[in-house]
Amino acid sequence: MVRTDYVIDEMISAKAIAARIEALSHLIKAEFSDTSKLVVVGLLRGSFVFIADLVRELDLPVEVDFLEASSYGDGMTSSREVRILKDLRGEISGRDVLVVEDIVDTGHTLARVSEYLGTRTPARLRTIALLDKPARREVDFKADWIGFEIPDEFVVGYGIDYAQRNRNLPFIGKVRFTGEG
Ligand code: 5GP
Ligand code: MG
Ligand code: MG
């Protein structure tokens, strides 16, 4: 059931996100300094704001592609079965690939997507997630780079939704139900 009785408490400011992305971009540039072309793969839809800001900090030869995996739907609980709903448009065999995700929660999505893309023999396959909830992990998966570790709270904003709303908030906020309405 989709609830409407909630307020959003800011957890990570737009300024803190920008500063963190700037710092991460240096690590990514160091890793891929020798690349002739980096394919940056955003996982739809939650990563669309993060990938937009991230690629603008990378002065590397970059291509952008997208992949959509099944996720939360409109609810707040994770599905353990991950399906590929929309595949990449481009080839990644022999290429350097950076997969960009919004949140690592149970770990099923990024673990499965990494395995799936790994079968196409990319030269290097790395993963980055803006947020990580280590307390929720169900599979042994660790992204190569993480923006922020957060507690087990349901968050929205900066591309991340609750029932398709709130993606356009410039900050990350925590959903707090009020029990009113
Ligand atoms: P995992 O497969 O790691 O359990 O789930 C990852 C996906 O669950 C994320 O890409 C995201 O779509 C969704 N997710 C996990 N935590 C949250 C959250 O706090 N808020 C929202 N809106 N989605 C979340
Ligand atoms: Mg997602
Ligand atoms: Mg979602």
Q: Which strand order does the major sheet show?
A: 4-3-2-5-6-7
User: What is the top-level CATH class?
Assistant: Alpha Beta
Radius of gyration: 16 Å
The helicity comes to 10-25%
The number of helical elements comes to 3
What does the average pLDDT come to?
94
Quote the CATH topology. Answer: Rossmann fold
Distinct ligand kinds: guanosine-5'-monophosphate, magnesium ion
Architecture (CATH level 2) name: 3-Layer(aba) Sandwich
Calculate the terminal CA-CA distance, rounded to whole Å. 14 Å
Helix and strand sequence? EHEHEEEHEEEE
Care to describe what's here?
This protein has 181 residues and is an alpha/beta fold. It has a single domain (15-29, 36-150), classed as Rossmann fold. Helices cover 22% and strands 31% of the residues. It contains three helices and nine strands; from the N terminus they run βαβαβββαββββ. The strands form two sheets. Strands 4-3-2-5-6-7 form a six-stranded mixed beta sheet, with helices on both faces. β2, α2 and β3 form a beta-alpha-beta unit. α1 (14-31) crosses α2. The mean pLDDT is 94. The site of guanosine-5'-monophosphate has 19 residues, from β5, α3 and β8.
Brief summary of the model shown:
One of its GO terms (molecular function) is guanine phosphoribosyltransferase activity. This protein is α/β, with parallel strands linked by helices and 181 residues long. It is 22% helix and 31% strand.
Task: Give me the secondary-structure topology.
Elements: E1 6-12, H1 14-31, E2 38-44, H2 48-57, E3 62-69, E4 84-86, E5 96-104, H3 108-118, E6 124-132, E7 145-149, E8 155-156, E9 172-177
Parallel strand pairs: 2-3, 2-5, 5-6, 6-7
Antiparallel strand pairs: 1-9, 3-4, 8-9
The site of one magnesium ion has 4 residues, from loops.
